[in-house]
Structure formats: C-alpha cells, structure tokens
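ugh finaly. both done.
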Amino acid sequence: MASYDFTWKIMMLGDAAVGKTSLTIRYISGFFLEDLKLTIGVDFYSKTTNFNEKKVKLQIWDFGGEERFRFLLHQYCKGANAAFFLYDITNRLSLDHLPDWTQIIREHAGDIPIMLIGSKVDLQEFRAVSRDEGILAAKKYNLSSFIELSSKTGQNVEKAFDVITEILFERYKPNNDEENSSTNST
C-alpha cells in the first residue's frame, strides 16, 4: 500500500470547453488529446509526485463546467485544499464568470488557495483577454496566483501544478513532521 506525506484535493473549475480536462490529462499523462468530450458531472484523476523531498498525491477533481451541473459543485467542494479556475484567453465570457465560481468555492470549501489560469495561449492570434486583464482579475478576487498555459504545447502545465503544490506546502506544512499526518485531506 502506497503511503504519502501529503494528499491534496484540487478542484478544476471553469466554464465548459475552457480546457480543464485537457490540462488534467496533459499533466497526468504528458499527452494532449485533441477530441475530448465535455465532462459530465465530475471526473477524478490522481498523480503522485515528489516535492521538497516529500511524496505528494494530488487528487484532481475535474468538474463539468456546464450550468446544469453547477448544483453538484457545493458537494464536491467539501474537503478541497485548492482550486484552479480556468478561462479561455480567446473567450472573454469565460473570465466574466469568475466571481460566480469563486463565491461558490469560498462558501463551500472555505478560504482555500485558488489559482487563475488563462488557457489556450497557443491560440495567441485569437486572444480576447489580455494577460494584464488576467493578472488584474486575480488581484481583484484575491486569488493565490495567476498563470497562462497551453495544454496543447505543454507550456507552463507542470509549472501550474508546481506553483499550487508550493502554495499548499506553505499553507499546510506544520512545524514538525509528526503533525503532517493530521493535515492530510482525503
């Protein structure tokens, strides 16, 4: 049986077709799949990684972005340690829904770190949301971090997960190792 120093639940949130599943699969497998279907409800993935000489299991909960699944979200927020909110840099409306999503997260998961992610930077020529607008949105809604990435090319995919893992280490790492087991989430 595998043992982990930390197990963290990370929610993948945002409107439909912003690239949550593509990002998750790219991170888990290293591959980009062109023709993914929309997530129905929620999909669950996990990846074990090493960070600061600790074994970390990331449980990634990919939540379907369609409005008809939104009623399920509050249940899946329970026990979450962090969240990614993705928007598509070519679709301004996908960023406009940020306040709705963050309100639900904070109401049902508490004050967890939320990272704002501008996806699909490989489609630079169709950009509708500037990088500066993304940075300003992250500041306005008091989010933990901001990054732009491309699941297609792999640009900044690993970095996004490294940043959130580092934020989680800073937030949850107690002063001594004996307390570590009590900070794990399942």
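ok and the 2nd:
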Amino acid sequence: MDNLRIRIQNAFHFQGDTVSYTLLKHSSRLLNTAGQNQESYWKSHAWQKLQRLNRIFDLSPDIRCMYDTLQDFHTIFQEPQLSIQRLLLSEWITRHLSSEVPELRRAASSIQRFRRGILNAWKYGKSNISCEELNRRIKEIKRNACGMHDFENFRMRVLLACEPVRMEHSSYSLTKKDKEAWP
C-alpha cells in the first residue's frame, strides 16, 4: 500500500498539486488500518478519517483497489478456521496475480512465495519478535562498544542485556526478586 501511495503522491508532487500531495503524504496509517478497526482506532475522529479516505479514493482508483484488497486480506487474517484461511488466501493470490496495479501484483507474488510461512504463523500464532529484539539489543551494544578489545567482556554484556528478553518470551518468567537484580 505504501509503495502505491508514494508513487501516486510523487506524481502529484511533480504535477504541482500540493493539496493532493499533502493529503496522501499524511495518510499511511489511515490506509493501512483494518476497516473493522477504524472506529475503535480513531475513536471520535472516525467520521473525519472516513471522509478523508473517500477524498483519497476520489484521487486515485488504484488506491481504492489496493485498499479494498488490503481489507480482504485483513478479513482472511481474522478468519478463525485455518482450512478456510488457506482456501481464501489461495483465492486472494490467484485473483490479484493478474492485477493492473503493479504494486498489488508484486504483493500477491510475495505472499505466494511466502504462503507457507504465513499460514504457519497463523496456525501456530508465533513470530520471530524475540529474535528480532535480541538482534536489536546486540547491535546496540556493538555500536556503543566502540573499540571494546576483550571479547569476553563483550560477550558478558550481551548475555546480561539479552537474558531478560529471552525470559520474557519463554514459557517461564522471572520472580520479582530476579527482576530487581537485573540492570
């Protein structure tokens, strides 16, 4: 969605249409929010956001197509039965592989390529968030180390910094006393 929005936004910029450019520039979150969550997400501003969405759709039918497609994908994700999700996802991919919108074709192709992993994530409800958090913390320590010469000291800093993350995402948790002992 963002690639399409940026492409159309830049086209308005080159045409000198600053109103349309600004409208699209500040609409990323609005376009990516699931339709069923719009009202709860935007609360009292939901009506204004829906009016803004309609103005955006008037600017470009491609954005409307992509938005509807994204909403279909959110609906598939919300389906409780995995067998129905699998069937709906296959239909979704088939329907959008021949789309006229290049960003939508590319998205359908990527989802087709990673279909197995997507279905497994839906089936087991697992993600790689703990791995990503560990990698982020290690990279931060490496940046801040700036010439640390002793690998063992670096290793100990990594282990101390990353232990709470591993424990947060594991099946056991720290006691209150253990949590207070961590830096």
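summary for the 2nd one i guess: The first helix runs from residue 2 to 15.
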